[in-house]
Structure formats: structure tokens, C-alpha cells
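Chapter summary example: a protein plus iron/sulfur cluster.
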Amino acid sequence: MPEVNLLKSLDYSVLQQCMHCGMCLPTCPTYDETKFERSSPRGRIRLMREVADGRLAVSPAFAEEMSYCLGCLACQTACPAGVDYATLFETARGEVERQQVVGGLRRRFIRWVTLSVLFRRPRLLRAFGRALWLYQRLGVQSAVRALGIPRILPKRLRRLEAMTPTVRPPFSNKRIQPTESASQPKYRVALLTGCVQDLLYANINRATADVLLANGCEVLTPPVQYCCGSLHAHNGELDLARDLARKNLDLFPVAELDAIITNAGGCGSHLKKYAELLHDDAAYHERAKQWDAKVRDIHEWLIQINCRPPKAAPLPAASSSLQPPGSSLLITYDASCHLLHGQKIARQPLELLRLIPGVKLVPLPESDWCCGAAGVYTITQPEQSAKLLARKIDHLASTGAQVLASGNPGCLLQLETGAGRDLRTAGIRVCHPVELLSEAYRAEQR
Ligand code: SF4
Ligand code: SF4
């Protein structure tokens, strides 16, 4: 193990920025739950500083506090001192992994298989996705569950099995050509298809490409793409995150593009920080700066280029089974934390939804509060994740909305689970705003 304490190696100004005012406390879901100072942003920053100063050892208790933090960055939005909590949090998790204070061989093996193998090899990840799809499609999963086999699994594996998401092929490379273009393109953009997004929501990637085409873009979509590395960075694997950033910089012709488009809020906030991640890599730092300047979340880009309002409403059948014919479609919007707090993109998704004919937007209480998805939080902190989801679903039920829109695959997956599970909200459609936009553009042609 190298001797460098990652928190100690941080620029000290980042560590001492917090002035202990407590303005962030009411916005923190974990502090709200426990009311413990150590589970608040201020408390966690204090713990990190103690570790950096060598007054506190990285213990299992410290590791648990870092794991309990959602990384939702609501504290960053609330902070008047401009604390860079994202950097502090990722570095602290990195230090926990470096010192290997938690977990045994099994945890290390699972992390190696997922973070070092599957999520670094896009072809292998797709092969795994296809195998999982066959397992689900051929009824093996249902049979396994009907026979009660998960009951003999260890508790953690049983929980994982119950949460296995439904894989939805065809994947992005079968839905989107490497180059597609509007008739007289004004912009040349690249579309990032993601890793989880590719396996579970390739339809959203197709919808994103359609909306870009309808707005005068030439769209480059390399058929095989790498994970952006946010999963790795958020889980303390900063070297793996750097490796993936370099691979992406090699893959895309950054200098020839007007924008690099992502439709995943969680990925976007990481993708915009490649230069920071590669700050001491002389070979890549300049290109990373160029990359950061061109990465755009799809909502941000569409508003920037004056998105063309669709002339028709999305078809009711495609939008919600609850919509009576001739009535407005009631839509509510839940902000992805990393879109809102990480990238400060708040108004653009709402402005886009308001462009769609036949749509009425209703506010979602606490739409800026984490839904409990938070990367792998559903696996690492299932109880707290479930509490946050239940709170979200209660608010959703209070809106009467027929459609819940959100701009991040992790949130969509979490919200779909909640909407399907809760009888009051069953039948509510959960989708990405670009799906509604693309359906409206398609309806124009009918
Ligand atoms: S990232 Fe979210 S959970 Fe973590 S300290 Fe900040 S507000 Fe609390
Ligand atoms: S709001 Fe900012 S400065 Fe104030 S306690 Fe929280 S992190 Fe520290």
C-alpha cells in the first residue's frame, strides 16, 4: 500500500473551506434521518479533515459514514462557502478503499468483477447483459424464484437477486447508426450511450438521437463505448476512473465536435470533470480540458440551441394508460441529484417539458431530494434507500401525475421500482423527458 494518504494529498484549501455554519444540514437526507452530526455534511467534512491532519485513523466507523452518505451533493448547493463536497467525498471513499478497512475477500471479489472487469470492458458487459436477458426471457429467473432458490442464498446475494433489473435489448449499437444526420446539419455532436443506460434504457439513447436529429444535429455514436468512470470514482476507485477517462478521450474526435452529449445526469457531473481527474497527466490534461468544455447534458444542449417546439402532442397510448382522451397529460418532474446539484441544471428540463403540446406540468414536492438510488446505494444501504424511495412515492402520489419524468437511468430504475410496487401509483409511466419530446416529434408526422 502506498504511503500517501489521499485526503492529506488534497489541496488544503478544499479541506478548510467549511466554516461550520450548518446551512447544509436541513438539505441532507442522512442528517434528516439520524440527526447525528457525524451523518451531516459538516460532520463528515470534519472527520475527513481529522484524517487528513493525522488525528483520526480511517476506521470501519469512518468507512460506514462515507458509505452512508448518498453523494447527492444537496449540501454543495446549500453551502454559502462553496465547499467542494464532491471532491472531498470521492477522495474520502478512495482513502477507505486504499486502506482496505472494510470487507473481506468476497467484497473485494465482487468489486473486482464489477468495477475492474465488467464495467471496463464494454463488449463483455454487453455479453453479460445478453446472458441476463436470456435468463429472464426464457423464464429461468421466474422458475428460480418460484422454487424459492433465492431463500438459500446469503442475505446480501438474496437482496441482489431480488433487485436484478430487467435487461432491454436491442442495445444502442443495434438501434443507432454510427453516423446519423439531419438534412442540413448545423451542429456536429457525439452521443454517449453509457453502460447501465445501454443495457437497460437503449430506447432513451434512441430517443435522444431522434431529438438531436429533429434539432439540426449530425450525431456520431461510436457503437462500442466505455463507461464514463463515475461509478468507479464514486466508489473510491480513482485510478480506474482515470483509465476510463483516457479511453473516452482516445475514442472521440473531441476537436471536431460542437458538443458531447450525455442523457444521464449522474454521468454528466463526472464527465465534466475529466480535466480535474487527469490534472497531473501531461499527455491528456489539455484534451481533457477541451472535452470538459464540450460535454453537455441533453437538456442543457437543447435549450442552448433553442430547441424546436414540437407541433403535436405525444400519443396518449405512448404516454400514459391513465390519460383520458382529449385531456392534458399531467407530468411531474423529479430532478436527478447530479443533474441539479452536481451540474446546476434546474430549469432546462422543465422548459423542455413545457414546450410539448398537450402537457400540463405539476410540481413534485421535494423534487430536489434524493430518491435513494445514488449509484449502488440500493445495494450498500438498502434500508435508507427504501425509506427515501417511499418518501418520494408518497410525494408522487400527492401530485396526481400520470407521468413522472427524470433525467438519469439510476433514478428511473429506482422510481420504476417504487411506482410499480405502490398500489396508489401503479400505472404511472416513468420516463426520460427526451422520450416525450421524441414521441411528440414522431406524432407530427402522423
Ligand atoms: S452528499 Fe447528500 S447525503 Fe452526503 S452529506 Fe451531502 S447532502 Fe448529505
Ligand atoms: S453549508 Fe458549507 S460551510 Fe456551512 S457547514 Fe455546510 S459545508 Fe460547511
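Key point: Residues 382-399 form the longest helix (18 residues).
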